[in-house]
Write a sequence for this structure.
């Protein structure tokens, strides 16, 4: 029997290692095949390999299989399997979107399918893998049963789209999501008072995604050598939703991703509904010294970036740092939420 | 990290985050004090109605919270000029409606 600590180490290092060695080959391959995008925020307009999400998805599938093999608990094995299928479905939708550009309504609608494995888990185990009793601060456990089942698909779709909308600059998605995952990890320890001796699937999920994101960040940070594409952002966003549902951390994750949701609110309100990113007017343009400033185009969506550069142009790196500060702040609030949950359960 | 440069640019968003969090905790406190405390009834039908009402009221409160969050985010993301323009358009629409009404009244009289 493998100890829990070793399982955690495997869950973190395997995706880190796989993506770490996978990205250089992938970048070379994509550039050779001519599948690249132009980084318009740089003076040199470099060619950057696209669809890095494919490496993320493959790494996560292999890591999930290895983790299932080393884990000695059938319930944990099932949870890891369901988690893997959920994020793979989201990833495949992302890959299709990268190739075909799905409409802004079809994409979130298709993402609702990603929640099916979690709902269907009821048939593979003695009970559902999710608990329809989310934990609220100051209130504690609530019984939502039917309402929860109705909301469940949106718990996957909303973070997936929110992460997708924040993935606009080098490293912005990876940095902010890693911060959210760290807060989630701490919140999970606080709420359920767990130690590393006991096996907790939520910790495995968080460590797996963090591992893969650290490797991705190495190649996606400024100046990026690979773009994740929708395949990466939808996979990572859906994983946040799946962690929220399977780990009973719905409220904690909602609080931690406040900046992401705010960004989505701004876009949806300004373009009056859902609109494909490529069909929207550009909200930003480059200054002569290659800083990012607002276009002041009335048709352009109002984004979090627009709000940050409202007082003047900023360098891409500074905007990503601002995203980081906002996410650190919301993550602290998420940990406070976890404490407020802990005191009542 | 150039925190001293970046923080003044995002303090309004940080304030909004705090507001969103504070109002959510406030709503949770209201639900805990006024809704969760309602005792369980011995009659199953009444108990079901009470339970459903509890969930509905809580959902309405959360929906209000989400709308306030959405509305403030929307306002915050608009510049002063945008807000002025929106107000101007609204005023013009109101005036046009008023004129329409007056004309209709005049027509009825004649």
């Amino acid at each position: 029997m493998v100890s829990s600590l070793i399982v955690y180490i495997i869950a973190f290092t395997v995706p880190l290692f796989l993506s770490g060695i996978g990205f250089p080959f992938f970048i070379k391959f994509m550039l050779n095949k001519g599948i690249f995008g132009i980084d318009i925020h740089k003076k040199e307009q470099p060619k950057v390999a696209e669809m890095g999400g494919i490496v993320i998805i493959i790494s996560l599938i292999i890591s999930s299989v290895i983790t299932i093999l080393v884990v000695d608990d059938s319930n944990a094995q099932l949870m890891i399997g369901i988690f893997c299928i959920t994020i793979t479905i989201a990833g495949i939708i992302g890959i299709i979107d990268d190739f075909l550009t799905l409409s802004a309504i079809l994409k979130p609608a298709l993402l609702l399918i990603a929640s099916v494995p979690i709902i269907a888990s009821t048939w593979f185990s003695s009970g559902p893998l999710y608990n329809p009793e989310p934990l609220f601060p100051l209130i504690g456990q609530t019984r939502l049963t039917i309402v929860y089942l109705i909301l469940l698909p949106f718990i996957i779709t909303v973070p997936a789209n929110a992460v997708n909308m924040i993935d606009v600059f080098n490293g912005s998605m990876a940095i902010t999501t890693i911060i959210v995952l760290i807060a989630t990890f701490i919140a999970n320890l606080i709420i359920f008072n767990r130690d590393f001796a006991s096996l907790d699937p939520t910790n495995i999920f968080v460590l797996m995604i963090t591992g893969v994101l650290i490797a991705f960040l190495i190649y996606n940070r400024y100046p990026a050598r690979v773009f994740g594409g929708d395949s990466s952002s939808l996979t990572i966003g859906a994983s946040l939703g799946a962690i929220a549902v399977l780990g009973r951390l719905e409220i904690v994750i909602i609080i931690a991703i406040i900046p992401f949701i705010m960004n989505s609110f701004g876009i949806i309100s300004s373009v009056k509904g859902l609109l494909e990113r490529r069909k929207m007017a550009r909200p930003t343009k480059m200054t002569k010294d290659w800083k990012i400033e607002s276009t002041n185009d009335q048709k352009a969506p109002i984004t979090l970036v627009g709000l940050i550069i409202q007082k003047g142009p900023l360098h891409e790196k500074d905007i990503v740092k601002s995203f980081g500060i906002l996410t650190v702040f919301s993550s602290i609030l998420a940990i406070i939420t976890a404490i407020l949950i802990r005191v009542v359960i | 990290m150039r925190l001293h440069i970046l923080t003044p640019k995002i303090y309004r968003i940080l304030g909004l985050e705090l507001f969103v969090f504070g109002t959510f905790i406030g709503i949770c406190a209201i639900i805990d004090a006024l809704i969760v405390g309602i005792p369980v009834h011995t009659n199953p039908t009444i108990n079901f109605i009470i339970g459903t009402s509890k969930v509905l009221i809580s959902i309405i409160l959360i929906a209000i919270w989400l709308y306030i969050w959405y509305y403030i985010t929307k306002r915050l993301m608009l510049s002063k000029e945008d807000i002025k323009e929106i107000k101007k358009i609204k005023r013009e629409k109101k005036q046009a409606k008023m004129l329409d009404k007056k004309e209709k009244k005049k027509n009825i009289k004649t």
